[in-house]
Amino acid sequence: MVIPQKPLAEIYRLSDIFNGYGNWYRAEKNTSIPTREGFVCIIRGGLFSVLRKSDRLLIEKCSAPSILGVARNLNNKNYFRIQADAECHYQLIPFDKFLSEIENHQCQPQLYKVLAWSIDLLCHREELLLGHNSYLMIKGNLVTLAAMDEFMRNKINVADYIVKRTNLSRSMVMKTLSQLRHDNYVEISKGKLTGLRTLPESL
What is the reported pTM? Predict the structure, then answer.
């Protein structure tokens, strides 16, 4: 399954509109990045995680640039929290200001593409996780991890990533990874995924 490609050109174009607007803030590693009601958050630099607010389930590991909070501000509900995995730099833009500047610069097509990509990511996650047995959930997340760029992948512990993304028990995940390593389907070094062959349909 192909991971939806991040629309970097569109994100950069939208972010550039606000280069000179307001203050830029810094979030230290393992601290929260605020996503306040009525504001859009533009993350300019760093690595971060999107966590489900109710139970801290990992939704996605992300890297800058990113634009967060557009959809949330349309319904005033906040289902997620953002945690910096490394030092992050970000801006908070009032929602009305964000929309008016997008309109002034005629960048609605770029915004639509970013929102469509966000929806596609959630559909991709649903396809990986909902209604599947534990092995297929682990398999899907290994494929997702393998498709990340090398810099991002080298920052992520394989077992931690799968446990946090699925809520499967660590013992189940470790047992499955051990079997896949024994059968030479995966290569893991110092907890990081370094190689992946085509995985079997069942284990």
Answer: 0.83
The angle formed by the CA atoms of residues 11, 76 and 48, to the nearest 5 degrees, is 45
pLDDT for 145-170, tens place per residue? Answer: 998 888 889 999 999 999 999 999 99
How many angstroms separate the CA atoms of 70 and 68, rounded?
Answer: 6
Q: Cα separation of 101 and 29, whole Å?
A: 31
Task: Give the integer Cα–Cα distance in Å for 192 and 160.
Answer: 10
* pLDDT tens for each residue of 64-119: 999 998 887 666 667 889 999 999 999 999 999 999 999 999 999 999 999 999 99
The arithmetic mean of pLDDT across residues 175-184, rounded, is: 95
According to DSSP, the residues that pair with 67 across neighbouring strands are 42
- CA 56 from centre of chain: 13
CB 199 within 8 A of CB 139: yes
Asked if residue 96 lies in contact with residue 42, where contact means CB atoms within 8 angstroms, the answer is no
Q: Mind giving me the DSSP string for 105-150?
A: TT-HHHHHHHHHHHHHHHHHHHHHHTT--HHHHHHHHHHHHHHS-H
| Residue 51: both structure tokens together | 């966590």
Please give the span between the terminal C-alpha atoms of the chain, in angstroms, as a whole number.
19
